[in-house]
Amino acid sequence: MKGSNQLTVRDNNERLVLHLIRRHGAMTKPEATRETGLSANAISVIFNALEHEGLLLRGAPVRGRIGQPSTPMRLNPDAGLYLGLKIGRRGFEMGLVDLCGGLRAQCAARHDYPTPERTIAFVTSALPQLLQKAGVTLDAIAGSGIAIPSQLWHWPGDFGALQGEMDVWRDHDIAATLSDHLPGQILVENDATAACYAEWVFGARRIKPDSLYFFVGTFIGGGVILDGAVYRGCRGNAGALGPLRIPDEPGGTRLVDHASLSVLGQLLARQGETRAALLDPPVDWSALEPVLSDWILRCARALAHAIVSASAVIDFEEVVIDGAFPPEIRARLARLLESRLSRLDLGGIPHPAVVQGSFGGIARAVGAAARHVSDRYMLRQEPDMS
Questions:
Q1: Is there a single domain that holds both residue 238 and residue 352?
Q2: What digits encode the pLDDT tens for the residues 168-183?
Q3: Residue 85 sits in the same domain as residue 71
Q4: Which helix (H) or strand (E) holds 356?
Q5: What's the pLDDT tens digit per position in 295-327?
Q6: What is the pTM of this model?
Q7: Is 303 exposed, middle or buried (0-12, 13-18, 19+ CB in 10 A)?
Q8: For residue 249, what are the domain limits?
Q9: Coil, helix or strand for 323?
Q10: Which of 5, 6, 11, 103 minimizes the C-alpha distance to 379?
Q11: Residues 104, 134: contact at Cβ < 8 Å?
Q12: Under 8 Å between Cβ of 63 and 72
């Protein structure tokens, strides 16, 4: 990624600097000069402007080197607060996220199935609690994001709703519905794509700029990161991974038929077990054995096939696995997936690394907030779809 010394692209250069500082954690002016290709004077002007705007904080000077001490700069977490709301088939989640991805406060509620009325009731009840927990007022929030399945009305029988009750979501403008209840500009994003934004913008590790992201929830979805940005596609559906075809697996031909919490719930029900643990997940899922181990193996087999298919189209360096389950389950799935993938014939395609995501179930709400940070402060590699 290179910058330009033309004054007309100052905004792009500032985004580039903020993007790099976010990816590296902190940077000095000489480091930014080398990374961007901008002149030392241009970098100095940008750093000073961003510090003046409150977006950057100075670290301790680095001494012991030749020449003047260099001062690393890092992002100021207090420079922006964003609200993220997840509307799911099983529940609502809301989080208040700062510019560095810190989750200042969160609230959640379960439901039988979502409706616009239930969404309004949750927001009006949870938002005051959220503000009180974080110790901030409503005017401190710079913007709101909503993460919601793109076609929420599909497959209602899989989560106990009637088709007529879910059809209300067809062509429903949820941003307009909540415009009087949520602060600032409202951005709406597919829930799995939002989770991908959370990982790219705020993840605990620097994931590769060409990565495939999977999120296992009630169903399964994900996101695509290309050339250092979340790629949403011409209709915003890039990373809709559930329909990927899975060969030679009993129970269905699609990825969603194997790698989803809905499938785990069905397997538990067949054994006479309750699905309650999946509706309000505990930290420990050991009580779900042996069904749990069978499901993890089934997920790993299906995901391995899906990764081979996706990698045949785009040269992904890394695959990120996350989901609405405890970290221990995520780790087991990632390890088993790595093992299964290494045994498949990739036909000359390089083996992508398998890594774990950072957020678990809260990823979608965090990602709804992260979309604001990405749009405002990070490089845009594709046309604006909002």
A1: yes
A2: 999 899 999 999 999 9
A3: no
A4: strand 353-356
A5: 999 999 999 999 999 999 999 999 999 999 999
A6: 0.90
A7: buried
A8: 206-357
A9: strand
A10: 11
A11: yes
A12: no
